[in-house]
Amino acid sequence: RWRADGRALRKLPVHVGLVVTEEEPSYADMASLVVWCMAVGISYVSVYDHNGIFKRNNSRLMDEILKQQQELLGLDCSKYSVGFANHDKTGQVLNCQSTLKVLSPEDGKADIVKAAQSFCQLVAQQQRTHSDLDVNMLDNLLSSTHGFPDPDLVLKFGPVDSTLGFLPWHIRLTEIISLPSHLNISYEEFFSALHHYAACEQRWGK
C-alpha cells in the first residue's frame, strides 16, 4: 500500500524535515513517521526538536525505528533499510534506500557561524578571496547537512508558529505544512500532508 501511495502522488519530496515544537517528543510516534517516509519512497529524512532530545538519544530513536519497521513492514522490512548520517555513524549510510539525520539547534545558526569562520580563515590564509563567497560556497562549508539536498517539505508539529531554528539557511524554498501534534499521529494524517504538498504549485518567489 505504501509504495502504491507514493507512486500515486504527482510529486514526492526527496527530503522531508520532521520538526517537533512540542515539549514532550515521542520516540514511537517519530519512528512511525520516519518509517512511513521510507515506505512511500522518500530518500532523505531529517528529525529535529528544538531541545535536541532526539539527537542526544539517537540510539534510542534508531531502536524504535527498527522495531516499527518490523511491526509495520513485517517480512518486507529488509527492503526498507535506513542509515544514520550523523557523524558518529557515517558508515551505516552506504547502500541505504533512506538516509536519516537527527538534528538539533547546533546544526542551524551555529553551523552557519562555523562556516563563516572557516571561510574567513581561508581568506586569511589567502586560499580564497572575499569575492568567492556565494550560495554554493556556503552550502559546501556547512557540515551538518553535508550530502543532503535542501528539504522540499517540512512537516512542523505543535502549536508554535515557528520552525525554532531548523536549518535556517536551507529552507528558503521549502514548503512548510503545520500539523497540530506528532503525538498519536495517523498514517492518514501523514499521507494527507504529502497529498497537500503534491498539489502545491511552487512559484520560486515569483
From TrEMBL:
Biological process, per Gene Ontology: angiogenesis; cell differentiation; lipid metabolic process; regulation of intracellular cholesterol transport
Annotated GO CC locations: dehydrodolichyl diphosphate synthase complex; endoplasmic reticulum membrane
Chief subcellular location: endoplasmic reticulum
InterPro entries per UniProt: Nus1/NgBR, UPP_synth-like, UPP_synth-like_sf
Cofactor: Mg(2+)
Primary enzyme class: transferase
Topology in membrane: Multi-pass membrane protein
Assigned keywords, A-Z: Angiogenesis, Developmental protein, Differentiation, Endoplasmic reticulum, Glycoprotein, Lipid metabolism, Magnesium, Membrane, Receptor, Transferase, Transmembrane, Transmembrane helix
Gene3D superfamilies named among the record's database cross-references: Decaprenyl diphosphate synthase-like (3.40.1180.10)
Keyword Endoplasmic reticulum: yes
Pfam families per UniProt: Prenyltransf
Molecular function (Gene Ontology), one example: ditrans,polycis-polyprenyl diphosphate synthase [(2E,6E)-farnesyl diphosphate specific] activity
Catalysed reactions listed for this entry: n isopentenyl diphosphate + (2E,6E)-farnesyl diphosphate = a di-trans,poly-cis-polyprenyl diphosphate + n diphosphate
Record pathway: Lipid metabolism; Protein modification; protein glycosylation
Family statement drawn from the similarity comment of this UniProt entry: Belongs to the UPP synthase family.
Subunit field text: The active dehydrodolichyl diphosphate synthase complex is a heterotetramer composed of a dimer of heterodimer of DHDDS and NUS1. Interacts with NPC2.
Known function: With DHDDS, forms the dehydrodolichyl diphosphate synthase (DDS) complex, an essential component of the dolichol monophosphate (Dol-P) biosynthetic machinery. Both subunits contribute to enzymatic activity, i.e. condensation of multiple copies of isopentenyl pyrophosphate (IPP) to farnesyl pyrophosphate (FPP) to produce dehydrodolichyl diphosphate (Dedol-PP), a precursor of dolichol phosphate which is utilized as a sugar carrier in protein glycosylation in the endoplasmic reticulum (ER). Synthesizes long-chain polyprenols, mostly of C95 and C100 chain length.
Protein name: Dehydrodolichyl diphosphate synthase complex subunit NUS1
